[in-house]
């Protein structure tokens, strides 16, 4: 029997609003970010979706988002953190490189600047989310609040790029619904909450 993962992007932050690169560094949720998280919480409540377990990255923007959605206990995990962009942290977004076409991401660009590669992020996200889902019982629903770059890297492992390009738009407070069965993640839908 399958298990359901609701993989959510945190609410809008000050750095998002200011168009600054935000990976391992942190900034607070804006009023819009707070409101969007509350809308997401209402969506889950109205849809009758209850979480058997909840997780967030160790970064405050993710934990704060989760706490606006549910008051249940949760665990903070480093494996769900955002991509580390090295010395580019807190710099203007226009400094981001172009995606490497063959990898559909920044690839290993940030490694030379003391950051992570897309595969580093993908591997730690996959290991963390797989472990979370393996620990859940059949039929359970899990909420995990993470970050845009980290979620993108994770989805590249499990989705065909053309399908992902067509169906996945990761805005603040978007939720990617996946099922987990036979050690595999399967994309179901994206729920937009902004």
UniProtKB/TrEMBL annotation:
Pfam families: His_Phos_1
E.C. number(s) listed in UniProt: 3.1.3.-
Family matches, as InterPro entries: His_Pase_superF_clade-1, His_PPase_superfam, PGM_Phosphatase
Annotated protein name in UniProt: Histidine phosphatase family protein
Organism: Companilactobacillus huachuanensis
GO molecular function terms listed in the Swiss-Prot or TrEMBL record: hydrolase activity
Organismal lineage: Bacteria, Bacillati, Bacillota, Bacilli, Lactobacillales
This protein's record includes keyword Acetylation: no
Key words of the record: Hydrolase
Keyword Transcription regulation: no
Domain of life assignment: Bacteria
